Amino acid sequence: MAGVPYYDVHAQQLTEQYESLEAHAVHQWLMDLLPTGANARALDVGAGSGRDAAWLVSRGFEVWAVEPSMLMRQEAQKRHAEAAITWLDDHLPELEHTRMAASQQGVSFHFILMSAVWMHLAPQLRATAFKNLMGLLAAGGILAVTLRCGPAPAEREMYEVTEEEIRLLSVEYGATVLRCLSAPDQSGRPEVSWIQMALQKNL
Fold first, then answer.
1. Helices (H), the chain
2. Opening angle at CA 45, ends 39 and 50, nearest 5
3. For residues 113 and 99, what is the distance between their CA atoms, to the nearest angstrom?
4. Which one of 47, 134, 160, 164 has the minimum C-beta count within 10 Å?
């Protein structure tokens, strides 16, 4: 998956940047769609600083967090040591370790968050990634995806993303788009905007 070396090199700086934004503000757009219940289970794919995973724990979820950058994981585990998060060294498109652990434990997820990740995945890998995400999601579960629009920084490898691609993958792999919004960048970058999409796995 593109971008992992950059995150290793800049782990401390990026952690500070991500933690400067409150998770509940970043994800306000999907709050009413979050599953509830005593046994709700969430998967944070590309968990970065652990901000969102810790927030999901605070909302009562059992949380697994996937992060391919070793140094980002270390920063996250130090910063959110008190949060009951199961951390996994894994990456898209295969999510091999995550799928194996879920299969061994007989679990699926009621909510999957993939925030600011899709642009790092090469287009030819995305169908496999989406299929594997759907395989981890429980029937009726919610997948929340945010898509970064705008030019990539010179030192980071990113690929074009579109709403239409997600809609087509949803049709192919058995999901329904519940919500699609456009939003400005909360870090104040005028050249960057976001598409926020919430999908539900068909019953």
1. 4-9, 11-19, 23-26, 51-58, 70-79, 96-105, 126-136, 163-172
2. 80
3. 16
4. 164
Q: What is the pLDDT of residues 42-61, one digit of tens each?
A: 999 999 999 999 999 999 99
Distance of CA 172 to the CA centre of its chain: 20
Amino acid letter, 42: A
pLDDT tens string 121-160: 999 999 999 999 999 999 999 999 999 998 887 777 889 9
Contact 130, 118 (CB under 8 A): no
pTM: 0.93
Which of 61, 147, 137 shows the shortest CA–CA distance to 99?
137
Domains parsed from the chain with CATH numbers: 39-201 (3.40.50.150)
Residues 6+ apart with CB under 8 A from 33: 142, 144, 178, 179, 198
Spatial neighbors of 72 by CB under 8 A, at least 6 apart, are: 7, 8, 11, 14, 15, 48, 49
Tokens found for residue 45:
């794919």
CB 122 within 8 A of CB 159: yes
Q: Cβ(170)–Cβ(145) under 8 Å?
A: no
In angstroms, rounded to a whole number, what is the distance separating the alpha carbons of residues 116 and 26?
11
Write the CA distances from 89 to 47, 150, 191, integer angstroms: 11, 29, 32
